[in-house]
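Reviewers of the previous submission asked for a worked example of the structure-prediction workflow described in the proposal, so we include one complete record here. The input consisted solely of the amino acid sequence. No template or homolog information was supplied to the procedure at any stage.
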Amino acid sequence: MGIIMEDDMKKVILIYCVLVVTVLLSAQSIFALDISFVVGDVIVERDGKENLAVVGMKLSQGDIIITKNASIAELQYADKSTVRIFENTKVKVAAIQDNQENVSIINGVIKAKISKLQKGETKKVYTPTTVCAVRGTEFFVAVSDSSNSRVNMEEGSLALTNPYGEINVHGDEQATVEVANKPLMDENPKNPELWKNTADKDFILEPQKYAESYEEYLATLEQRSSMQSAEIEKIKQSSPKKKDSKKIEKDMDELENKVAVIADDFFLGDCANAAVDHVLQSYKEKKQEIFDSFNKVKEQADRVVQQQKANYEAIMAIKEAYRKSYEEIKGKHKESIKKIQEEVNKVQ
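From that input alone, the workflow returned the following structure tokens.
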């Protein structure tokens, strides 16, 4: 009797430990970033409310970190990778799920120091105009008021991609990505803060030109989003009712590539939309011409992001459906093997 109770107690303890580990892992996936360093006036916007940033604060998807004048903050990943946010900068936590821990630079300057990635892990830095696919590296990113972007590499390498093209940037190289243009290498070693100051002055001189570039860029994103919507509908219609695990594995690999493209477009559009908001907030009282030019862009940006978000949510739902189907088939396979073994054991 005592032995049976002892065994039962061991089972209870084991189940409890499994539950604790599951909860901890779940929490880690939700809060994979935290604030590790703060100097000056730093705000975290969450669900429309402003919170004073403090060391140790856990960040979740959608949070926006804002540094004011003479202020700095540093974000830290679970693997000790860091993103240092310099003064007068806005950074958004873009995505923390499926081994992705991504941030978006809405405006300003950051320095990222990323540890070597584990198998299956991705870290990306989005700007309004480009996706920085990180490969374990150290680099600066600057985003001007016009949403043009600048990358200064220090160590390692990364790929810059957007709807217009892709380049690889290596240590001690620089690249710029203007709105509605492909990424280009830049021979000028100008530091990112100086680059941003110059770009912001150019923006003030010709706001209408930059607004027109934005409209062209958003039209490109909208066209891609419409094509992706049609592709998602085809995926829904073409999914056969019966599949084996090998077939689902192949389909899941193909689906993963589509998910990556749709997700990148969504986070580009979301960052671009936030950048338009930043322009409207910054220049409403200072430059009516700039405000008027980008106020027209805002409606287009909202429409594009709504469509992109719908695509993103739809493709993620399809991905989850495939995952569940795969697990169900594998589970039935294991059960069949078990039954066969039981029947074999009955044979004398």
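Confidence is low (pLDDT under 50) at residues 1-6, 9-29. We consider this example representative of the routine output the project will generate in years two and three.
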